[in-house]
Amino acid sequence: MRARLREFRALSRAQKLLLCEAVALIVASKVLLTVVGLEDAERCFGTLSQFLPCHRQPEAPKSVRWAVLTAGSRLPGTYDCLERALTGSTLLEASDFPHCLRFGVDTQSDTFEAHAWVESNGDVLIGDVDDFGRFRALTEREVRG
Description:
19% strand; alpha+beta; 145 residues; 4 strands; 50% helix
């Protein structure tokens, strides 16, 4: 625990703020998705993104990726691709970065598996997996900056 506190103290003020936002959003996404479902959670996060501070720097997409992955891996419990993708999309939207939130399904397996990810500038920013080619995008939500 002390090591994590030291790590947190060593971060810049901007990194601390972004990480705290990611922690709050990823926990909120888990609750909202469970209680109200995807459509209402997206609507709520879309509104919330208007009130978050803007992190408009050239490295912001990479910073958002770092914050979401760090929050999702350091918090107790499990946070899946949908919760991470919603969190990342919200943080990117708050900073007016164009990106695309995609939802897809596994087309190569006999079992149903869905996946959510965020693309920015043609690259998968959040939700990259080793065998990504097996997923076919069903829907996407483009967010223009």
